[in-house]
Design a protein that fits this description.
By secondary structure, the protein is of the alpha/beta class. The protein is 30% helix and 8% strand. It has a 5-stranded parallel sheet, with helices on both faces. The chain starts with 87 loop residues before the first helix and ends with a helix.
């Protein structure tokens, strides 16, 4: 019990209380006294209940209440020795230490040698030859495939379209849903064949009249079916040369002069597209094939 001048009454409610005088935690008027900062004991450092010597403490704790186990033959915990510290003189000596000199260490990762640029005459590539009717696409593509030093296939879109014998959508009849459906089918068939040839190490060259301003008959469809590595090259001779070559055609592949002129005018949109353009108006087939090799080499080199 709390009282003035009364003898200590020991423990109450598991707490240590000092009852030998006025409560130090209150003012004489009875109000709580302010608690100084950091007044609370840290865990394990509060005064412990007096116990008999050698009892070992409750639950294996040390009588000192420091949280360490007490066992037979163990005394109070020993303080750890203070680690030695280096003097300023020793620190200066470390900085003046001479390290052994030896050969430089090799780099952790040796540099990877750069690969040589691919040879356009031997690399397995897929080339799309673009041009208007009468530009000589089929003739040049067949010659280019025949004269390469590696296996090369020629895939002509017009030939694949003519696989349809009954119900063929004649281009001379105009562009409609029927002709567009057959064109899409022929383009997917050509793309499937080109991918199979490339997968077996055989190059291929395709030819088609791809319009730059028409998404349906566009370059994106070819890249979607063949792959992003498709290399387009444009053949664009003069209009007079195109009209002369178209007049030599026969059958379904011969178009009217008006249609040829209209297609040639739309093909002029490839200028400024960044694609390699070859004007083969005054070039023979062999020279045009060599110019295709040069254009493919520049594309492979990233020029």
């Amino acid at each position: 019990m709390r009282g003035s001048g009364s003898a200590p009454t020991g423990w109450r409610c598991g707490r240590w209380r000092r009852n030998s005088g006025p409560d130090p935690g209150r003012w004489p008027c009875g109000r709580p006294a302010p608690v100084p900062p950091f007044h609370r004991f840290r865990r394990g450092s509060a005064p412990s209940r007096p116990r008999a010597p050698g009892s070992g403490g409750a639950r294996g704790r040390s009588p000192l209440g420091n949280g360490e186990r007490a066992g037979p033959g163990h005394g109070p915990p020993q303080a750890h020795p203070t680690p030695p510290y280096a003097t300023p003189h020793e620190i200066g000596a470390c900085h003046r230490m001479q390290h052994p000199v030896g050969p430089p260490l090799p780099p952790a990762h040796p540099p990877i040698p750069a690969l040589p640029p691919a040879d356009a005459t031997t690399a397995a590539v897929a080339v799309l030859l673009i041009g208007p009717a009468g530009a000589g696409k089929t003739t040049v593509a067949r010659y280019w495939a025949d004269t390469r030093r590696v296996p090369t296939a020629h895939i002509s879109l017009d030939d694949v379209r003519e696989w349809v014998r009954s119900g063929f959508a004649d281009p001379q009849s105009g562009w409609n849903d029927h002709s567009e459906a057959q064109y899409r089918l022929a383009r997917r068939t050509c793309g499937f064949a080109a991918r199979n040839f490339l997968a077996n190490g055989i190059s291929c060259i395709l030819d088609d009249a791809v319009f730059p301003d028409r998404p349906v008959v566009g370059l994106g469809g070819w890249k979607r079916h063949v792959g992003p590595g498709l290399l387009p090259v444009v053949l664009l001779p003069g209009l007079d040369v195109v009209l002369e070559r178209n007049a030599e055609r026969t059958g379904n592949r011969r178009l009217s002069d008006e249609e040829v002129a209209r297609i040639h005018g739309r093909m002029a949109g490839w200028y400024g597209s960044g694609l390699p353009i070859i004007d083969n108006s005054q070039q023979d087939v062999a020279t045009t094939a060599r110019l295709i090799d040069e254009a493919v080499a520049r594309t492979l080199a990233g020029w």
